[in-house]
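dude i think i finally got it to work??
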Amino acid sequence: MKPVVYVSRAFSYVEVMATVIVVGIASAVVIPTLGDTTQTQLTKAAELLVADLAFAQVESISHSDDPRAMVFDTANGRYYIAAMSDTATPIINPVTKGNYEVRWGSNRAHALSAVSFGTISADGDDILGFRQYGQLDQTENATIEIRAGGNQITITLDAITGESTIGSVTAIP
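look at this
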């Protein structure tokens, strides 16, 4: 008769650490999606808006005979880039070949449905124009406030350089 040998089976330290690391990575990916998605939408909307402002500025420099403007339609949650000579008509987007227009919650901004505009300081109107060298068409810095949920971000444009700065997410007062 053969003797019975009992072998205790356990996890090695390396196996336990590998499991902890995998669970940690999975948590880092999943937990932010369970949190406040409006803050994420707000941040992404600010980045999209700043990229479009930079495009409008470059377009103004390359079309110095007819600089560009960013036109805000706050009531309908949209903005578009237009030539200063015709601010009622969006320019053509060179990529999509459609109007260069962004509406929160549709097309390029389809994931940003919680976003809306707050106040816009563009020299008394909803048109933020650029001049032939990329500077703003106003003497004071411009600000654009966007909101989502109970939070807001303010984007500031330098009047001289046209450079955009994204502020931090703050609670709406």
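DSSP finds two helices and ten strands in the chain.
im so relieved honestly
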